[in-house]
Amino acid sequence: MNSPLSHAQARLLVVDDEPNLRDLLTTTLKFAGFEVLTASTGGEAVAMAIEHRPDLIVLDVMLPDMDGFAVTKRLREGGEHIPVVFLTARDQVADKVRGLTVGGDDYVTKPFSLEEVVARIRTVLRRAGFGEQPEGAVLRVGDVELDEDLHEVYRAGVEVKLSPTEFKLLRYLMANAGHVLSKAQILDHVWEYSWSGDTTIVESYISYLRRRLDVRPAGTKLPPFIETRRGVGYLVRAPRKPKP
Questions:
Q1: Reduced to 3 states, what is the DSSP secondary structure of residue 42?
Q2: pLDDT tens digits, one per residue of 140-189
Q3: Exposed e or buried b for every residue in 29-49, given b needs 16+ CB within 10 A?
Q4: What is the distance between the alpha carbons of residues 186 and 23, in angstroms, rounded to a whole number?
């Protein structure tokens, strides 16, 4: 079973015989917080998938030795059920059906936006159950405690009342403590992949959360719990221990 996001980011295997596209995908996915392995042929992809057991494969259909459909079929027949997102210039319905029939999980047609690829990957990982916390899990970061089972949040021992969306947003930030999450990532996870609004909703809810977490009912302010990295995103993390 895959580890929760709080312990490890998903490991991806990117398979494409075009060096420039492979490098671009690798850079983008690493920036999005993933661990990335690469391969340039179908045979190499099969070998690396068996050896490294990635959480998901981003697989180009047109490869020099065997196509992505054959790679997926070989993995499935060998008992490997790793999620697969196909990348291809083919957009015929028959090809898409074939890709899903051999065991693919999603299909992105070239040319594509990098944001779309990242969103599709996260959606497939979520469907596969990657990053889910066990039922009743309690997350603790610094002086904030979130009880998933009771749907309660405490800061420094004082309960903080949150709406369901605020609770889900805080849970996502805490489950990824120590990692900067972009607005696009937060939209994808909290408001789901189909959300079509602009990113200002993320800013609004981060503001709501800060008011709930950083200000006591009597008006006393606490140190900010959510950090902003301008132009990048948001993160939470436990306070650093002072150096001796």
A1: helix
A2: 898 999 998 888 999 988 999 887 788 889 999 998 888 889 888 888 77
A3: beebbbebbbbbbbebbbebb
A4: 25
Measured in whole angstroms, how far is the alpha carbon of residue 52 from the centre of its chain? 19
Tokens 């391969």 sit at which residue? 39
Q: Which residues of 90-108 are buried (b: 16+ CB within 10 A; e: fewer)?
A: beeeebbebbeebbbbbbb
Report yes or no: 41 and 19 within 8 Å, Cβ to Cβ.
Answer: no
| Cβ atoms of residues 206 and 230 within 8 Å | no
Alpha-carbon torsion, ordered 33, 35, 39, 45, to 10 deg: -120
Would you call 136 helix, strand, or coil by DSSP? coil
204 SS3 class? helix
- Enumerate the β-bridge partners of residue 60: 87
* Residue 3, CA distances (Å) to 10, 16, 134 in order: 8, 27, 11
Query: What whole-number distance in Å separates Cα of residue 192 and Cα of residue 74?
Result: 32
Indicate the SS3 state at residue 26.
helix
Q: Is the peptide bond before 111 cis (omega within 30 degrees of 0)?
A: yes
- Give CA–CA dist 122/41, Å, rounded: 24
Q: Which element (helix H / strand E) includes 202?
A: helix 200-214
CA atoms within 13 Å, Cβ hemisphere of 244: 0
pLDDT single digits (tens) 201-241: 888 889 989 988 998 877 788 999 999 998 889 999 866 54
Residues 6 or more apart whose Cβ sits within 8 Å of residue 26: 14, 36, 38
**Count of residues for the chain?**
244
